[in-house]
Amino acid sequence: MGLNEFLFLLAGLKWTLALSAIGFVGGGVAGLVVALARTSGIAPLERVAASYIGLFQGTPLLMQLFVVYYGLALVGLKLDAWVAVAIGFTLHASAYLGEIWRGSIEAVPRGQTEAAKALSLNYVSRMKDVILPQAIRISLPATIGFLVQLIKGTSLAAIVGFTELARAGSIVSNQIFQPLLVFGIVGALYFAMCWPLSLYGAWLERRLATATR
Amino acid sequence: MTNHATTPPAATDTPMIVMESVEKWYGGFKALTGINLSVRAGEKIVLCGPSGSGKSTLIRCINHLEAYEKGAIRVDGITLGDDSSTIDAVRREVGMVFQNFNLFPHLTVLQNCTLAPMRTLRQGRKEAEATARRLLDRVKILEQADKYPAQLSGGQQQRVAIARALCMGPKVMLFDEPTSALDPEMVKEVLDTMVALAEEGMTMICVTHEMGFARQVADRVIFMASGEIVEEAPPEVFFSKPSHARTKQFLGEILRGH
After folding, report:
1. Where, by residue number, does the polypeptide cross the bilayer (chain A) (predicted)?
2. In angstroms, rounded to a whole number, what is the distance separating the alpha carbons of residues B203 and B219?
3. Alpha-carbon gap, residue A79 to B9, rounded angstroms
4. What is the pTM of this model?
């Protein structure tokens, strides 16, 4: 494998990073909205959020990307590949993160909400200052686990034409007929992205734990 | 607690809290049955009764931690409605101390005390911290200001919880079994803090089984059973000449071994 092939893989890596960033940001923002809706105490809103979670957890990401890109095009809504992927990953990630964070919000003892209410803190402050900081800590292992999954899941964006890392690996492998070497390198590059994230999660968890001990 | 040379203000005739025919249901279970209660400014009430008698529910209705189905509650002239504006207005006047302290574990003692004044009363950090330090000093725990709740003993945490509530400048303090979760040797430090607060003229409703505290500070002791107020009397009458059989039975159980 020559330098050109390796650079081609790195170009794929760049797309993978970009797609992951979209998934993190879109999924994080929308996921927070889903989690808050799911714990709002407003029954219709909770049901809508629960259905949303059920729908996007229950169908494959591959299919979701396919529907957003090709399916919407069939009904005349032709989306740019970037937009399609951004929507697809946001839907997918927000359903999972929303459910993870819902569980974490509910795991914060009820007395915390009551104390915050008794101090006449409003909803925004109760969430921002009291509940979410504790919920985030509870959710860290599951959140980091999901984000690592999401990085690896970006390979599915190949279906709408992105030559991200995994697709780049297939292309190079087909050219030089050294699949073991190529996918070994691809695997190592994925590992180089995911491992630091896991380490960061573990570090963050320790740091937040010592802060409250 | 600081020693005031002034005499404590006596209870006045102005009603601070009025409950009129308040009823509360949990599904088919009636938790409160037509509660009528009027508490004057500066008055100290001790609420007691067997577990499940509705005493905690009663005080939790006053700051609307529990919604109630019927009746009316007024606090300092504000009629508690279902809208958030009157609920917020009442909560600003009413401080609450819980059995399990409910301090915010991710915030330091000082931050626990400054959060609500900064958010709700829009105080600046300097002002809020000055108030917090003064009140932490009053509950004799100022030296722990930069620690996290989990680093403190139960008694210390409960005193912080009292200081945190006082930082909002409440006119009424509600205590929901404040010493029930404490190890015996820590009960006194919390009760001493509450006695000092009572002596300064705070309007207080305390759900507690600390009958020594009731004798010492209560203007009235109220006994509840099955969601009803069964008996209310000044402590000297309540303990020596209870009129209802259920009160006698309860006192017999709770005072045994004292």
Report:
1. 15-37, 49-75, 81-101, 135-160, 180-203
2. 11
3. 73
4. 0.88
Share of chain B above pLDDT 70, in %: 94
Q: How far apart are CA B52 and CA A151, in angstroms?
A: 52
Question: What is the tens place of the pLDDT at every residue in B40-92?
Answer: 999 999 999 999 899 999 999 999 999 999 999 999 999 998 788 899 999 99
- So what's the ipTM on this one? 0.90
Provide the b/e sequence for A32-60 (b: ≥16 CB within 10 Å).
bebbbbbbeeeeeeeeebbebbeebeeee
Joined tokens for residue A65: 């990307």
Per-window interface: A 128-147 vs B, CB < 8 A: 129-130, 133-134, 137
d(CA B168, CA B128): 9
The answer to whether A197 contacts chain B (CB < 8 Å) is: no
User: Which phi and psi angles does B237 have, rounded to 5°?
Assistant: -75, -45
CA distance A194 to A202: 13
The structural architecture, per CATH, of the domain A3-210 is Orthogonal Bundle (1.10)
Domain at B17-256, CATH homologous superfamily: P-loop containing nucleotide triphosphate hydrolases (3.40.50.300)
pLDDT digits (tens, 9 = 90+) for B132-189: 999 999 999 999 999 999 999 999 999 999 999 999 999 999 999 999 999 999 999 9
